[in-house]
Amino acid sequence: MKPSQRITTLLGGGSDGWDVFNKARDMIADGVPVTELTIGEHDIRTAAPILQEMHRAAMAGHTGYASVPGTSKLRDIVAARYTDRTGVPTTRDNVLITPGGQSALFAAHVAVTDPGDVALYLDPYYATYPGTLRSVSAQPRRIATRADDAFQPRASDIAAAAEGAKSLLINSPNNPTGVVYSQATMDGIAQVCIDHDLWLISDEVYDSQVWEGQHISPRALPGMAERTLVCGSMSKSHAMTGSRCGWIVGPPDIIAYLIDLATNTTYGVPGYIQDAAAFALEQGAELEEEIAAPFRRRRALAKEVIAKQNAVSLVPAQGAMYLMLDIRSTGLSGEDFANDLLDAEHIAVMPGESFGDAAAGHVRVAMTIADDSFVAALERLCKYAEGRAG
Question: Where are the domains of the chain?
Answer without folding.
Answer: 5-45+286-389, 64-283
